Amino acid sequence: MAHPQPGIFALGASAHWHLEATLREGVTPAALVDAVRSFARERATTSGVDLVVGFGARTWAAAGGEVPDGMTAFQPVVGPDGFTVPATQCDVWAWLAGSGEDVVFDHARTVAAGLDSVCDVAYEQHGFAYRDSRDLTGFVDGTENPSVHEAVTEATIPDGRPGAGGSVVVVQRWVHDLAAFERLTVAQQEAVIGRTKPDSTELDEDDRPDDAHISRVVVEEEGGELEIFRRSTPFGSLSEHGLQFVGFSADQRRLDLMLARMAGADGGPRDRLTRFSAPVRSAYYFTPPLEALRAEG
Length: 297
Prior knowledge:
The protein is α+β, with helices and mostly antiparallel strands. The protein has helices at about 30-45, 55-60, 100-115, 150-155, 180, 185-195, 215, 250-265, 290-295; strands at about 15-25, 50-55, 75-80, 85, 90-100, 120-130, 165-175, 220, 225, 230, 235, 240-250, 275-285. It has 9 helices and 13 strands.
């Protein structure tokens, strides 16, 4: 039985760092995977900071890895009004999370150094816990998350399927227009999200707009919800800020459905939250099981 990377489910970190990188010209995907395995094995002996690593499907497959059924690189999602979720697919993603920005920064430098001979860093972003697990809009983030015990099932590919023990993860950067959002009354903000602001209580269906955020991102089939496990955090400065969205799933399909619904590309209304937050980066990665990540190359 393969085991998921434990950092996926390690809650409570207040400081986060994300790196996305692309293969340098002339470097093989196998060399990238070997480099990642080298620092991933070293990280396993270091306490205080969790490391989760994912690879683009094409990169992992080219290195000889087993790719989950139906997994592809991220493709742009375009709604009927032209709203677009862009694709910024890279070859590798590393996420570090810990108790303080200083120690996470130090370990992020170590990871960047481990990638330096094989990759060019395309994007890096720090993140932080905000108040009692809230987004910068002031609403609780991740209310729809399953419990950690249930999340292991919802976010991990089951035994007997390609990539068993791993996860498909979507990594996105959403930039908020907080000034516009804060011009709304609290009642109007709650209609955007579909929950009350103080305690994150879901609005009654009769009172919740069809284009409210939770009306669009909660995907149901055959009477059950297709759940994902969110590990998102706020990011940014005073001039630009938003949400680093990270969502783990046992398959890519439910993530595709969620994003199509947000854009209105499924024939339904566009998510009202996208009037106040714009996606600027989006990629899919496969987070291989612990055994595959630590294997000798």
